[in-house]
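User: I'm curious whether this sequence folds into something compact or stays loose and floppy. Could you predict its structure so I can see for myself?
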Amino acid sequence: MAQRKHKKRKQHTKSKSAASQQILASEEVSQKADEKKKGFFSKDKSAKAVEKKKEAKPAKGANGKPAKPGTWTRFKNYVKAVRTEMQRVVWPTRPELVNASLIVIGAIVFFGVFIAIIDNVIILPLSWISSLGA
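Assistant: Here's the prediction. I'll summarize afterward.
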């Protein structure tokens, strides 16, 4: 159906500028590239996959909702997921860790001094103004 619309659009744009024709040509190329990416998924296979999904329905609970796995099964699944995520983590080397820690400590010291200076700049005039009334 999308191809029919595309053909209709292409027929209507024959009288339009060369720029719009180039855009249509690039859209056609991108559609062909998308079709190549999908390559091995034919309509027959996707229809079979949909049928299999319809056949493999989850077990229903007493209230008609899908049955929830037990607490122990959910805990085991959680532990497995944590283990796989921990294997994917890229831990920093010792020099990288030391460097990052020094940067954080330096930033804390810098901003601490900066805030102390700003605080004194604000408080000194205020204390001077408050002493005028006494």
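Summary: The CA atoms of residues 60 and 66 lie 4 Å apart. The two ends are 86 Å apart (CA to CA).
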